[in-house]
Amino acid sequence: MKQKNIILCGFMGCGKSTVGALLAKKTGMSFIDLDSYIEKKENKTVSKIFADSGEDYFRALEIEAARELSERNGLVIAAGGGTLVFRENVEVLKKSGRIVLLELPVETVAKRLENDTTRPLLNRPDKDEAMRELYNKRLPLYRAAADMIVNADDSPMQVCMEIIRNL
After folding, report:
1. 119 contacts 46 by C-beta, under 8 angstroms
2. Which residue, of 71, 84, 109, 121, has the fewest CB within 10 Å?
3. Number of Cβ within a 10 Å radius of residue 28
4. pLDDT value of residue 20
5. pLDDT, the chain, mean
6. What is the pLDDT of residue 111?
């Protein structure tokens, strides 16, 4: 039997990439960060893609990447923060595996992203307000997409082991 994928979703800063790499190592699966996958294909950073071509162009690349990766098996995929906001991505990725939401309180997210300047949607003067607004808009969508919800406020290894126990 082919090994199903594990798709990690959650708000930026929740630990998808860190937990995903650990999870892949522990399960013998391959790890792919969706944003890095897109960056490699486009030969530019997500920030640069946003700056050069806009969010709509990036979201089109994201849909294409989700489709490509869902054709494969045995992957731990760290989805971008906005990936599972789009129904099409949820449907495509759900067919290939289980979606795990790494959920964090908004205060923890704010603390983790405090000095982060790499997030295109937060590069604005009202960063904290924008982050909270986006978080509140996205959280119900993440919850609706998830097959499993894990508290990501623990250490990355604890979160990883919690996912393995519940799969």
Report:
1. no
2. 71
3. 8
4. 97
5. 91
6. 85
How far CA 90 is from CA of 12, 77, 161, in Å, comes to: 17, 13, 24
Residue 5 CA to residue 90 CA, distance in Å, equals 13
- Stretch 34-56: mean pLDDT, rounded? 94
Question: Measured between alpha carbons, how far is 103 from 106 in angstroms, rounded to an integer?
Answer: 9
Judging by beta carbons within 10 Å of its beta carbon (0-12, 13-18, 19+), is residue 108 exposed, middle or buried?
middle
Positive or negative, the CA dihedral 166, 62, 13, 43 is positive
Sign of CA dihedral 25, 163, 95, 138: negative
Flag whether the pTM goes above 0.70: yes
Q: Which sign does the torsion angle of CA 151, 90, 142, 18 carry?
A: positive
